[in-house]
Write a structure and sequence with these properties.
Helices cover about 30% and strands about 25% of the residues. It has 14 helices and 18 strands. The chain is globular, with a radius of gyration of 23 Å. The two termini are about 35 Å apart.
């Protein structure tokens, strides 16, 4: 997990700092786009057709992998998902279909609750935090704001349950893409992105990003500061989650943590905050077990005329039903596998390796491990195309829940700065425009994409196109089959196929 610690703790999560970095990058983004446009004009065309699966088939794959309530790493449900992916790869006709085991600690919660002055407060567990005894932890609540050093100085938390607000950065995506042109192109044929468009990045908790230990945590990390100051437990309020949802599965770094933690929805959190300010008594319960286990990367090969490789990847694990994250990504990988398996080998200049890896919700360890275990494949990789959270419906806050807006959720393509890679994206989007999609530099938020592609990029330095969406329900139990916009499935597969075609022929 050392790699995860180095990576996740370097993600830029402060809104102001991120925007300042982007503004400094604008001239280079514009220059890279100009060079890529010149290259795109001269790219060769792929001869022959690539037959895409139809909407019914792609959607059936999403249904197939979403048969269990979750696919958490190392669990029986997770293993069922792995076997399902392997079976589909074999049906499609991939060669050398393999399941690579990765040892992990399987953390399994069984019971969790919070009572304040004898009244139940709806809650959810913070993954990989310490378990309590069956009777729970009884202690006084202490409110510490957002957990800055100054906040902690005002509240003695030793032996208490620290209550804090966890915040998300909010990006002015409309202004960034339309005015500042902080992307290589904005593919928005429906005109869905306006100047007022903005997005909370609810995977990037500003004061509890993950990937840290007590020794490496920054001083604004509320969990680790609470631990170091002697708190017996933490209750964390999802202040910026656009709903009263508390089923937030994060941080998912795979690091076991020393005190118990619970998530509280923002509306319930408002009441808890007031109770904590008055030093109310609480009982928090988090029971479960930890045991050694394994998760498995699933991969297969479609040989071409050379051993130069195109990697097409996603991840199979999910904290809940995971229709969008990442049933949709798995189905798009399978769509490319099916489509290219029907192209004769003599018309495939390069080999395609399809990977559906494990442990995105375990510090993306599956991606890191694949790159370490298969250095020869990575050495021959011309491009990594990672597909995640695609065809998800956009939602907005409605009371304590969500309502659909009638639009697709915004997606980005984290794109390596190499002009030929940017040209691939520009040319593919010109031929197959995608809805509400913005290609942006791969290191927009940190040293690698904030996606499952990060492990491959950090370990092997492979050029990347990482296509990913971030609707608000991704990390909670509302990520269900009804969130899939079925009409977008085939067009998305078509855009990906165009990128693969171009990379098949790229000099």
């Amino acid at each position: 997990m050392q790699q995860a610690e180095r990576w996740e703790s370097k993600i830029r999560t402060r809104t102001g700092a991120t925007l300042a970095t982007i503004l400094r990058r604008l001239p280079s983004i514009w220059a890279d786009r100009r060079r890529a446009r010149r290259i795109a004009k001269g790219l060769p065309s792929f001869e022959g057709s690539v037959e895409l699966p139809d909407e019914k088939t792609i959607y059936s794959w999403i249904e197939g992998i979403c048969q269990t309530p979750h696919r958490r790493p190392g669990t029986p449900e997770g293993h069922k998902g792995e076997q399902w992916v392997a079976e589909k790869f074999r049906e499609i006709g991939l060669e050398n279909v393999t399941l690579d085991p990765i040892p992990i600690t399987v953390w399994t919660p069984e019971t969790w609750s919070l009572s304040v002055n004898g009244k139940k407060v709806p809650c959810f567990y913070v993954p990989n935090t310490a378990f309590t005894n069956p009777g729970g932890l009884s202690a006084t609540l202490a409110y510490v704001g957002t957990g800055t050093p100054a906040d902690f100085e005002k509240a003695a938390v030793a032996g208490k349950i620290a209550v804090a607000d966890v915040t998300f950065p909010r990006m002015p995506t409309g202004a960034l893409m339309r005015v500042m042109r902080a992307c290589y192109v904005l593919s928005d044929p429906d005109g869905a992105v306006s100047m007022r468009t903005s997005q909370y990045l609810n995977f990037a908790r500003q004061n509890f990003i993950g990937g840290c230990t007590a020794e490496t945590a920054p001083d604004h990390d509320v969990y680790w500061q609470a631990f170091k100051r002697g708190a017996a437990g933490v209750c964390l309020i999802l202040r910026d989650q656009p709903s009263n949802s508390n089923t937030h599965y994060g941080p998912y770094d795979g690091i076991m943590k020393p005190i118990p933690g619970l998530w509280i929805g923002k509306l319930d959190g408002a009441r808890l905050r007031e109770s904590a300010r008055f030093g109310a008594k609480a009982v928090m319960v988090l029971e479960g077990a930890s045991a050694p286990g394994v998760m498995r990367n699933v991969w297969g090969v479609l040989p071409g005329q050379s051993d130069e490789t195109i990697l097409v990847t996603s991840h199979h694990d999910s904290p809940f039903a995971g229709a969008v994250e990442d049933g949709a990504g798995v189905a798009q990988v399978q769509a490319q596998a099916r489509a290219w398996s029907r192209v004769p080998k003599e018309k495939r200049p390069r080999t395609i390796v399809f990977v559906v890896d494990a442990g995105h919700f375990y510090g993306s360890q599956g991606a890191h491990q694949f790159a370490r275990d298969h250095k020869e494949i990575m050495r021959k990789a011309r491009i990594l195309i990672t597909l995640e959270h695609l065809a998800g419906k956009e939602v907005r806050e409605a009371g304590e829940g969500y309502e659909e807006t009638g639009r697709l959720a915004l997606t980005v393509m984290f794109t390596s700065p190499e002009p030929s890679v940017i040209a691939t994206v520009l040319k593919a989007l010109e031929k197959r425009p995608a809805r509400v999609t913005a290609p942006i530099p791969a290191d927009f938020f940190g040293p690698a994409p904030t996606s499952d592609a990060s492990g491959y990029v950090l370990e092997a330095g492979v050029p990347v196109i990482s296509w990913i969406g971030c609707p608000y329900y991704l990390l909670d139990q509302h990520d269900t089959l009804d969130k899939i916009e079925r009409s977008a499935l085939v067009p998305i597969a078509g855009t990906v196929a165009e990128m693969v075609k171009l990379q098949m022929l790229m000099p």
